[in-house]
Amino acid sequence: MGIKVCIFAVLAWVSGLVFALQAQVREQQIPSVVQKDGRYALMVDGAPFLILGAQANNSSDWPSTLPRVWPAIEYLHANTLEIPIYWEQFEPEQGQFDYSQMDTILAQAREHHVRLVLLWFGTWKNGSQHYMPEWMKLDPQRYSHVTNQSGESVDSPSPFSVASLDADIQAFTAFMQHLKAVDTERTVLMVQVENETGTWGTLRDYSGAAEKLFDSPVPIEVLKAMNRISVANSSWRDAFGPDADVFFHAWAVARYVGQVAAVGKAVYPLPLYVNAALRDPFKGAPGSYESGGPTDNVIPIWKAEAPAIDILAPDIYMLDTPTYLKVLELYHRSDNALFIPETAGTSHAARLMFSALGLEAIGYAPFGLDYTQTNHSERMVPDAPNAFLDPTAQNYKLLGPIMRDIARLNYEGKLQAVAEIEDQPAQTLHFGAWDAVVSYGGSRGGSPKGNPEPIGRALVAQLSVNRFLVAAYYCSVDFRPAGTEEQQKSQHIVLGAGQTPSALIDGKWQHRQFLRVEEGTYEDGMFVSNRILNGDQTDWGLRFNAEPEVLRVSVATY
Ligand code: DGJ
Q1: Ligand 1 pocket test: which of 83, 119, 121, 196 has the largest number of ligand atoms within 8 Å of its C-beta?
Q2: Ligand 1 contacts CB of residue 342 (under 6 A)
Q3: 42 FRET partner, CA 20 to 30 A, in 105, 360, 487, 488?
Q4: Atom 9 in ligand 1: which residue has the minimum CA distance?
């Protein structure tokens, strides 16, 4: 009898231990943004991860609307849904937190095997305070608005309201505490703090308290950040002239958001970011854009005042190619990972996603991609209800199976990607001994003319010296031994028998030959080959059309 009891006790102890170990295994590492040699990765479950995301419409995170969100996410092949948590729903009475919607979205995301980025619609939503709970909206004396130059209250929260800041800190702390407690699976990858912070219609707060600070010396950390230490002890106007109002408002908003973020991060150190309503990077004069948010001209102020924010992220709705590319360049910095939390779901933006990948973007998410139709309903064509999803879906079908590889290769500096640019029928990517030439709109052996609409895009990664991974749409990709710079400029890619891409190297012509071109995909980090392409499929370079195709290519010279 005694022995039996003893055996049962040991068995119970062992199974308890096994259970505890399993629980530990299930408790995944907290996602993080890491940096190496100036390149970034979003680490998820211990490895680089590429967010192939979609953002839901603003009012989609309700039990009644979620059934019209998930089918769109599935159709898109998105791996991440960006969706808001509304302060008014989260804290309907002061200090009474309602976690139900957070729990619902977490449970449903897990059922659908999709990760989440939660958007904290707190003090700011597109510059307004529309998501503040009623008990705050009804007390504007305490939770004050920005005052404009004429002394009127405007539709924007004041960054100088201590009561609003305290309330946001309390609420965001509860949010992060709950997330930490219920998300040991790490379904949530990042949290966006506020939404498009800043103010429309006035450059800054002109309340008495704000005026006093505006006339005081600029804080030293702002001068350092903006490289203006020479004007120490100057007022904002004296230090920054016509930019003073905008810089001052950015400082005030960043300081507020920085405090909310720091408290949340101390509770649960998830990656945090803020999204920016952009200014025109070529001609964005003060007054023409939302003032106070992380626009490109105040990035250093935001970095100095809100260090708990990992990423300043552009919402890109200015879709002409030069502006889009300029924005990508401005937010791809050694102190900032490139992440696009909002953009249009058009085919134009979908092709430029490849330009973002070429700048090591850690994620991308077009806005309003669900079936709730509350936004952009004009895009819902009756006979083609998925037309507004198709451009993004096409990209994600190609990139989904290789997203871990793209993120890893980008982090290792081995990947380059490009989108077709108007009037530029070919682009050359340099990989040491090899150049990859991407050309658009060419016929077999003829010179590329560009596609009728610029829709081409390509991604090339160097797996070893002579081996590449290529994924592309609407273009042709070929490899050429890297010659001299002059030769590269003058040489056209001419494909056809006896005219392989070649280069004169050390006085000797070197010609490219394909050793092996394999069509396949990656599964669990291993390339699985379906067939070897040769003959007509490779004689004129590697041609990509509308089908998602991933090729592994080995090249040599003769
Ligand atoms: C940008 C905002 O961040 C989103 O919440 C949404 O309002 C879109 N604009 C609408 O196009």
Answers
A1: 196
A2: yes
A3: 105
A4: 126
Q: Is 194 in the pocket of ligand 1 (CB under 6 A)?
A: no
| pLDDT one-digit tens code per residue, 98-136 | 999 999 999 999 999 999 999 999 999 999 999 999 999
In the prediction, which pLDDT does 101 show? 98
The finding on whether 58 has its CB within 6 A of some atom of ligand 1 is yes
Nearest-atom index, ligand 1, CA of 58 = 5
- 138 Cβ contact partners less than 8 Å away, ≥ 6 residues apart: none
Which tokens in the block code for residue 117? 């980025």
pLDDT on residue 252:
98
Residues 6+ apart with CB under 8 A from 102: 85, 90, 118, 175, 178, 179, 182
Q: Residue 356 and residue 340: Cα distance in Å, rounded?
A: 8
Instruction: Give the amino acid at 471.
Output: A
367 Cβ below 6 A of ligand 1: yes
The alpha carbon of residue 409 and the mean position of all alpha carbons in its chain are separated, in whole angstroms, by 17
pLDDT tens, residue by residue, 20-43? 545 554 578 999 999 999 999 999
Cα distances from 355 to residues 144, 260, 414, in angstroms, run: 42, 33, 15
User: 379: CA distance to ligand 1 center in Å?
Assistant: 16
197 pocket-lining for ligand 1 (C-beta < 6 Å):
no
User: Which atom of ligand 1 is the closest one to the Cα of 195?
Assistant: 3
374, 58 contact by CB (below 8 A): yes
pLDDT digits (tens, 9 = 90+) for 316-346: 999 999 999 999 999 999 999 999 999 999 9
Could you give the CA distance from residue 472 to residue 546 in angstroms, rounded to a whole number? 9
Model pLDDT for residues 514-547, shown as the tens digit of each residue: 999 999 988 877 899 999 999 999 998 999 999 9
462 lines ligand 1 (CB under 6 A): no
**Ligand 1 touching residue 195 (CB < 6 A):** yes
Whole-angstrom Cα distance, residue 292 to residue 298? Answer: 8
Asked if residue 310 has its Cβ within 6 Å of ligand 1, the reply is no
- pLDDT of 496: 46
Residue 196 CB–ligand 1 contact under 6 Å: yes
